[in-house]
TrEMBL record:
InterPro entries: B30.2/SPRY, B30.2/SPRY_sf, Butyrophylin_SPRY, ConA-like_dom_sf, E3_ligase_FN3/SPRY, PRY, SPRY_dom. Coiled coil: none annotated. It comes from Merluccius polli. The lineage of its organism: Eukaryota, Metazoa, Chordata, Craniata, Vertebrata. The gene is Spryd4. PANTHER family: E3 UBIQUITIN-PROTEIN LIGASE MIDLINE-1-LIKE ISOFORM X1, E3 UBIQUITIN-PROTEIN LIGASE TRIM36-RELATED. Residues 29-224 form the B30.2/SPRY domain. This is SPRY domain-containing protein 4. SMART domains: SPRY (SM00449). Pfam families: PRY, SPRY.
Amino acid sequence: MAMHASVAHFCRLTGRSIGSLSVKWPRDATQPAGRGYISSSAANNAGIQFRLDERTAHSSLDLFKKDTGVIYRMLGLDPSHVQDNPERFRDWAVVFGSEEITGGRHYWEVTVQRSQEFRLGVAEARMAREDCVGTSAASWVFGYARRKWSAMTGDKAVPVQLVGKPERVGVLLDYEAGLLALVDTERRKIIHSIRGRFRGPLCPAFGLWDGELLTHSGLEEPGSLV
């Protein structure tokens, strides 16, 4: 019961309870236009380079620093004042990265010091826009709330043992191995990993309910990671 209460607190949805959600994963949805693709041949060279995709951003989120950062506005914009498109998240404070990943091993980092409630990881590019990263089975993320970390996918949240809160964390994705890892950027060490079955294109994915996040992409994977 405590775990479900934590998940419900973490990912707030106005007017709906966590128990009323159902996972939707439309396999036949059309591909969002204008988004790039990263294949296995691009891995381990310059590293995945992406910006945050404004077309996917919930109306409570503003992008800044050339769309590499995102800030949460408690009141947000009137949904009627943002462009209506099928890529936009309508109920949850979520935004996707601009690139789609179809294979390979990729690494990026996120400055998290100015937020006390967020999620970061990857999600299916076709994930239903009524769902939230971490509660949808089409997403794999690490979440931080109430000074605690969790590894999340579907309706499952597993505590992650991490002392304190770093200013910056790394995310490592190995598509073929079905691996997503949270990385200590100072010690160059994997803190915790999630195993999943990745099917189809994935996007870097972020949920934010406080403060701001800043992404750092185009990085090479640290060579000492284990």
